[in-house]
Amino acid sequence: MEHCSEVFVGIDVAKARNAIAVADGERGGEVRFFGEVDAAEESMRRVVKRIAASCDRAHFCYEAGPTGYGLHRLIISLGHPCTVVAPSLIPRKPGDRVKTNRRDAIALARLLRAGELTAVWVPDAGYEAMRDLVRARAAAVETQRVHRQQVTSFMLKHSRVFSRPKAWTMRYLRWLQEQTFDHPAHQIALQEMIEAVRTSKERVQRLEAAIEEFVPTWSLAPVVRALQALRGVDLIVAVTFVTEIGDLNRFESPRQLMGYLGLVPSERSTGDTVKRGGITKAGNGRVRHMLGESAWTYRLGSERRSSTRWSRPRPGCARSPGRRRLG
Torsions phi, psi of 293, nearest 5? Predict the structure, then answer.
């Protein structure tokens, strides 16, 4: 490889082998396929050093995905810039129906040179560990919901309806244990479903206890405590928000943050026609879900009891201008 001043390297990462392409720094320069190499750390270290030795400056990039940020940290430790690219924001030709590792690597190198790629925020190792823990808790909650739904559907199929409006209380669990069926297979199926609910609940409790244990020693614990000062925001909501959003300073304005979370109205306008719809629901769905739950909690917060009195002023008494209906 001839010595050059600057190169842009696109890496199509995979579990076993990574495809690499190199683009010369000048506009319209050659974009060549370097080859496929083993994805192991030592192999990638040798390749990065080899490419960097042939030029004065080398810029690397690869798509964010299941392989994580280990390659990014490796390249940064070697003293070279590396961009982790948002896959959904990569420009693609509408008529392109051929996708291979070689073509993807070449396209990444060319787009990196053109400055058309959007980078994602890369957390450090400790931050990523907390985020994995919070996401494990979210997965456990979803598993618990599925198991509960299985029990509810099973009881409804057999015309067993709980008389009270609120389910999954201690009274509801006692009612489940009191249910009997003529065929023992039905009884075994119900008991296994109840056991699955109990196991999933204990898993959620263990993960929440671990989160409470690690948050005080986390570098962003002050931010979590500050968010908990807001009504409707508990520990889980605050930790989820911080771990998923990352550094708030990377957003220039609240409007940009809301756009990242998909909480801005959609729009389809042309000419004199302006048509706006519901929120886009683009971006991070975990945070959007948590903020929605917090909003409902805020609506029915500590002022709920007094809101009824404020919304019904006595005859002849004007409503205080500082009071409004909260319901």
Answer: -65, -40
> What's the CA gap between 191 and 194, in Å, rounded?
5
Mean pLDDT of the chain: 88
Q: Residues 6 or more apart from 160 whose CB is under 8 A from it?
A: 179
| Token couple for 214 | 């690690």
Q: What are phi and psi of 95, to 5 degrees?
A: -90, 5
When divided into structural domains, the chain yields a total of: 3
- Encoded amino acid at 169, one letter: T
Vertex 240: Cα angle to 238 and 243 (nearest 5)? 105
**What is the reported pTM?**
0.81
pLDDT of residue 327: 36
In 3-state terms, what secondary structure has residue 184?
A: helix
| Tokens matching residue 133 | 């823990």
Shared-domain flag, residues 108 and 22: yes
Interacting residues of 235 by C-beta distance below 8 A, sequence separation 6+: 211, 212, 215, 224, 228
Residue whose structure tokens are 């993807």: 104
Q: What is the mean pLDDT of residues 155-159?
A: 95
CATH number at residue 78: 3.30.420.10
DSSP 285-309: HHHHHHHHHHHHHHHTSTTHHHHHH
In a domain, 109, yes or no: yes
Nearest to 142 by CA among 242, 285, 282: 285
Nearest to 161 by CA among 179, 188, 183, 184: 179
Beta strands in 165-271 (DSSP E): 265-267
User: Domain containing 133: what range?
Assistant: 125-219
What's the chain's length in residues?
327
- For residues 48 and 137, state if they share a domain: no
Q: Residue 316 domain-assigned?
A: no
Do 22 and 93 reside in the same domain of the chain?
Answer: yes
200 and 141 together in one domain: yes
User: For residue 173, how far is the Cα from the chain centroid?
Assistant: 33
Tens digit of each residue's pLDDT (9 = 90 or more) over 251-274: 899 999 998 899 999 988 888 888
